[in-house]
Amino acid sequence: MSISEIAFAVGFKDSGYFSKCFRKKYDQTPREYMNEWRKG
């Protein structure tokens, strides 16, 4: 699932704004988070 698909699935109309909000809350981008999660 792409970042855009996740953003839209959780109610964001703009994936860029989703990424900005995500980074503000978690101090990393959604992509960085996904990469860490995949590493386990």
Automatic annotation (TrEMBL):
The keyword Membrane does not apply. GO terms for molecular function: DNA-binding transcription factor activity; sequence-specific DNA binding. SUPFAM superfamilies: Homeodomain-like. InterPro entries: Homeodomain-like_sf, HTH_AraC, Tscrpt_reg_AraC-type_HTH. It comes from Phocaeicola dorei CL02T12C06. Residues 1-36 form the HTH araC/xylS-type domain. It comes from the Bacteria. Keywords: DNA-binding, Transcription, Transcription regulation. The keyword Transcription regulation applies. This is HTH araC/xylS-type domain-containing protein.
